Fold:
Amino acid sequence: MTSKASGIDRILTLELARVTERGAVAAARLIGFGDEKAADQAAVDAIRRELNSLDIQGEVVIGEGERDEAPMLYIGEKVGTGKGPKVDIALDPLEGTTLTAKGMGNALAVVAMAEAGSLLNAPDVYMEKIAIGDGYPDGTIDLDADPADNVRALAKAKGVDVSHITVCVLDRPRHASIIQSIRDAGARVSLITDGDVAGVIHTTDPATGIDMYIGTGGAPEGVLAAAALCCIGGQMQGRLILKEKEHQARAKRMGITDLDRKYTAREMASGDVVFSATGVTSGSLLDGIKRQGDTVWTDTLVMRSTTGTTRRIKAKHTNISKFNLDD
Ligand code: VTB
Structure:
């Protein structure tokens, strides 16, 4: 029996769950203290330490920033023991630093791993995004169409009235016209303050009541969301916003030649992709970290594109000292 469906050893799927579990537990110690940086740093330290214990030749392609602006988990940083498969790593150790600092729901620790060369190397700029779940004809949505047309097309494909379509949008002034267009078409808007990786993933799960995600958020979060959809199904389009010369130069340095390109999910993440997210604070996707004395409970979604397996791992860790936290 082989443990390899293709490039990545399947044991790494469970290892990746362990990585985000530890990142989430570390960040959770800072929930509600109003210190975004400290919460992020705690997740970064834990995730970096755990990634470095894996038998991979990893390179961070989506990380905390570029080398000159991020001391750890910067784009280009090598992670892992240096043995094992060559892999790209995309991560957002704490997706929702503000949510964590303010003690609000839906903060996640997120890491994706894929065969080397198969994740889009994107600079940390904004990305326009649109996503829907699985089971609709290709081309149901288009980033360049009016939001109103997109919701009408989805309602038709789903066989429901437009009023039964709910679109998740980041609550930002820049989205005023998108929100108006969705409502003018007769559909509903579900606003989130942060965390559009979860926003995109919600479209794949009918239980969330979210049918579509539209809006502009971080490009790193866009690639991570695309990695998730590669595993779980669904359609997505994303386009980098590269209006400033400096952003264009950064994109070119990363090998992007067509600055206006509209990427599908599979153009942002392809091949054998593993995605793991652990809840930091409870939300509609995952439960947050619970702790009692020396015991912690974690809730993780881990999935792999090659096999299409999605696992929800609720774990109880009875000895927090094994997490190498310093309390
Ligand atoms: C976006 C979104 C993220 O922060 O990056 C957003 O993709 C930042 O947008 O999920 P603003 O600059 O408007 O705040 C998140 O919401 C992460 O917190």
The chain has a mean pLDDT of 94. Residues 95-96, 98, 170, 172, 194-197, 217-218, 221 surround VTB (CB under 6 Å). Residues 88 and 116 are 5 Å apart (CA to CA).
